Amino acid sequence: MREPPPSPDAAVSKARSIIEQALAAPVSRPLVQAFFDEATSTVSYVVRDPTSSACAIIDSVLDYDAASGRTAERSADALIAHVKNQGLTVVWQLETHAHADHLSAAPYLQGALGGRLAIGEHIVDVQSTFGKLFNAGPDFARDGRQFDHLLKDGETFSIGELRAIALHVPGHTPACMAYVIGDAIFVGDTLFMPDYGTARCDFPGGDAATLFASILRLLALPDKARVFLCHDYKAPGRDVFAWETTIGAQRRDNIHVHAGVSQAEFVALREARDRTMDMPRLILPSVQVNMRGGHLPEPEDNGVRYLKIPLNAV
Hints:
The structure is a single chain. With 314 residues, the chain is an alpha/beta fold. It has a single domain, classed as 4-Layer Sandwich (Metallo-beta-lactamase, Chain A). Helices cover 28% and strands 20% of the residues. It contains eight helices and 14 strands. The chain has a six-stranded mixed beta sheet with strand order 1-2-3-6-7-8, covered by helices on one side. It has a six-stranded mixed beta sheet with strand order 9-10-11-12-13-14. Helix 2 packs parallel to helix 3 and helix 5 packs across helix 7. The longest helix is centred in the first third of the chain and has 17 residues. The N and C termini lie far apart (41 Å).
């Protein structure tokens, strides 16, 4: 059951309460299985209630070869195999945001496993912006109806007996959400490993000052809370991929936003770094699909689906 969303300040307090309860009672800590897609450096998760078969899938990947325009389901099939082998029941398919680096496999996974597809309510802002960029036309709904549920900041939900809350953490995109599930926080692209830093803010609707405020909300959570990331790119000097850390490690060691860094310092650093970065390789196909909840564009009169590439527009 979901409860009415509290005020933003109350949302962080409630998230702290959920984490502290889970830290005090192991039965309230989710079991987390990560699946790493090296082609897109993306980590998907199956998050399980230890007292039941209920689980959620977070940030799934549909394989996509840009050269051929072909999709495949290898990454999604690995999630399906795990869920079935463990005898799990998917109750939620959660997206942290409309990803710019991989296509979501949520509709494919729903067909095989069920579960309600949810994303933050500000996906409508992303749909408005990118609907114009791709000239998606009047048939493309910009009200989020492609998703089963739009989560508000501070809205609580459950995965079996696990308590969970959605936190709005904009800055990378307007619609970014972090999901606190027991003592685990799934932060999307907002934070990376401490030795790699933070998300870029130069996409449409992104803003470094807004990201800083969002990160401060996360850093107000308990030090021992586990933090699970959506990506890892191996920071210089690190030879292995990593995607799990803690709030305490982020507050102490994050190279962009550790304790003591001011908003002005962060904004200057983030904006300077963003000016040096290329656009993600799959941003145009990814956003085009993900703003539709992972659904591919409808086939045209020849039975073929097409993705648009706007020239000199990004």
